[in-house]
Structures are given as structure tokens and as C-alpha cells.
User: What shape does this take?
Amino acid sequence: MNPFPLAVRAIVDAAIDDYRLTIPPEQQTPAGLTDQIGQYLISSGYAVRPDVTERAA
Assistant: This one.
């Protein structure tokens, strides 16, 4: 596995922190957090797309 660039780690950390600070705990969900992370990555210029490479059987 390739390590994430430090910039990506910073964006993900910011998304997690902002999610925890802005969404009431009773409304927080794993799906909501992943949506937040995706939005932060996309707004920072990263492409978020599925991995379509074929893997050896």
C-alpha cells in the first residue's frame, strides 16, 4: 500500500475534526463522516473515484 501524502492526512484530519465539532454527537454516523472526508478531498482538488484495477486471482 502506498502511504498517503502528508497533505491528504492534513485534509482528512481537518474533516474529522470539523465533523466532530459541527455535528451533534447523536447525529454523527460513519457514513456522514466519510461523506465529509470525501467533500473535503474533492474541494481540495483530489479526485475521488473507485479503484477499477483488476487484481490477480
Q: What stands out?
A: Residues 6-22 form the longest helix (17 residues). The chain has a mean pLDDT of 90.
